[in-house]
Specification:
537 residues
Length: 537
């Protein structure tokens, strides 16, 4: 049976992301502060932000970029990210957001696969960004360094690197661009989906607009102050922090990385009200003694996403921050822009350990993964578990250049396989109970075992390998490699860990290694990860 959201439908206008976020902004709203640099304290009003976005769009259009072009954005959470990201969308460009922790080879793969014509980065990330861009065939003139000195004068920007100052100084008006928001790609984030290596997820302007409208149920309002430590390059940060806050005229306070003392300082100084976190941050808020040294009484809500969040941890957060604080949870995937489920702010009856209700306009099915039989939502009690499939206006078009993976994930009727095992109760409350997919979630980041296995198999002393996720209280899961050495090899755990660490982003590093005689596999050759998990305890 098809399960429909119990929430009222929301209007999804057929407009661009820029038009949806800023097209109806009032004079009074333009005077409000939109973004604050959490490090320097510098504030940007909506009026200044919109003007900067228009200026960047005009400068990019003057350089020949527009509809049909892809630009890579490689930066941490800084106010300039907000300006450039929306300036690119304003110009009709498709943005492929790059993980700030990505290695040069990873950047090269993403830029080459997406067909990026320009790389936008920052000086602290320039070494990897520049090497990655050049590996994909981009020249110096195709690399923008946001915090460069302008006109190539800065020591970090290099003689041919444009800066944000250069873009803002260009006297070109924002272009008039025409495209169908339902089909034109706004962003190309990279995700591993349910299995395999990273793939470009094709999300249209309508996908992003729809998900902001659907996420209004979370309850962010114009008086909220939102610290932004979850990265904007991740779809969670992009939609639920950045775009939702801009649409509701809340105040964003950016932080380029997570440091607990700095984060708590921002909460205290700016009287932050709505915290969007991943479970490791929630764990710190619940248990770290440093929390007691700061005034966090302004917080009214905490929403966790990107990885499992249990009822006990939710209770610990509430106990630490105050019983008045609403502890919420959401669920989604990059392929759904990303939110498909959330606990609405005005539903205190929904358990914090659940992922809540389908957001407005979403439909779901629960299917027995062994038989394909649909599992009904019960009239009372809780359903049997099964794989969650979702359909809605926020679901991706498909994977870039990968029709086979798209067909494996999207059914002809529009329902998308999530790879997660869920239950649903009579009231429409969903609970994630297991993971059909093999993806490892390390501190909210996606770590595909297949990618690490392929890398490890390139080592001359490794004959076979399997990677699984081990439960970890702080990180959620950590990657563990079961390695079969070549006969006579003298490989050590430290050498295996170092081999991987040199070639991947930090969150993908193997944290544990066990040497075994053979990787357990089925008759068809599929790795029996459940056997490895059982052996690992």
């Amino acid at each position: 049976m098809v399960i429909r959201s119990p929430l009222p439908d929301v209007e999804i206008p057929p407009v661009s992301v820029y038009e949806y976020l800023f097209g109806t902004i009032t004079d009074a709203e333009l005077e409000r502060v939109a973004v604050v640099d959490g490090v320097s304290g510098a504030a940007t009003t909506f009026r200044s932000l919109v003007a900067q976005i228009d200026a960047v769009a005009g400068a990019l259009a003057a350089r020949g970029l527009g509809v049909g072009d892809v630009v890579a954005l490689h930066a941490p959470n800084v106010p300039a990210y907000v300006t450039v990201f929306h300036g690119l969308l304003r110009a009709g460009v498709t943005v492929t957001t790059v993980n700030a922790l990505a290695s040069a080879p990873e950047i090269t793969k993403q830029l080459a696969d997406s067909g990026a014509r320009l790389m936008v980065t920052v000086s602290p990330l320039l070494a990897a960004g520049e090497a990655g861009a050049k590996g994909a065939g981009l020249g110096d003139h195709q690399i923008v360094v946001l915090d460069g000195g302008g006109s190539g004068d800065g020591p970090d920007s290099g003689p041919s690197h444009t800066s944000l100052a250069d873009l803002l100084a260009d006297p070109h008006p924002a272009p008039d661009v025409t495209f169908d928001p339902a089909t034109h790609l706004a962003v190309l984030p990279y995700s591993s989906g349910t299995t395999g290596r990273p793939k470009g997820v094709m999300l249209t302007h309508t996908n992003l607009v729809a998900n902001v409208a659907q996420s209004m149920a979370i309850g962010v309002g114009s008086d909220d102050v939102v610290p932004c430590v979850l990265p904007f390059f991740h779809i969670y940060g992009m939609t639920v922090l950045l775009n939702l806050a801009l649409r509701t005229r809340a105040r964003l306070v950016t932080l380029p990385r997570f440091d607990l003392a700095q984060y708590l300082g921002v909460i205290q100084e700016h009287r932050a009200t709505f915290l969007f976190v991943a479970p490791p941050i929630a764990l710190a808020l619940a248990k770290h003694p440093l929390v007691d040294s700061y005034d966090v009484s302004s917080v009214r809500a905490v929403l966790s996403g990107a990885a499992p969040f249990g009822e006990s941890l939710a209770g610990a957060v509430r106990e630490r921050l105050g019983e008045h604080v609403r502890v919420l949870q959401g669920y989604g995937m990059t392929e759904m822009s990303p939110v498909s489920h959330c606990i609405p702010f005005d539903r205190p009856d929904i358990p914090s350990g659940s992922v809540g209700l389908l957001v407005a306009g979403m439909e779901a099915k629960i299917v027995d993964p062994a038989t394909g039989t649909e599992i009904d939502q019960p009239a009372e009690g809780v359903s049997d578990p099964g794989e969650l499939l979702c359909r809605g206006p926020n679901v991706m078009v498909g994977y870039l250049g990968n029709p086979e993976a798209t067909a494996d994930t999207l059914e002809p009727d529009g329902f998308m396989h999530t790879g997660d095992i869920v239950t649903v109760d009579a009231g429409g409350v969903f609970q994630v109970v297991d993971r059909l997919k093999e993806l490892i979630k390390y501190k909210g980041y996606q770590v595909p075992p297949a990618e690490l296995e392929a890398l490890l198999l390139s080592h001359p002393q490794i004959a076979d390998v399997a990677v699984i996720g081990l439960p970890d209280e702080e990180a959620g899961e950590i990657p563990k490699a079961f390695v079969v050495p070549v006969a006579g090899a003298s490989l050590t755990e430290a050498e295996v860990i170092a081999f991987v660490a040199e070639q991947v982003a930090p969150y993908k590093k193997v944290r544990s290694v066990e040497f075994i005689e053979a990787v357990p596999k089925s008759a068809s050759g599929k790795i029996l990860r459940k056997d490895l998990r059982a052996a690992a305890g």
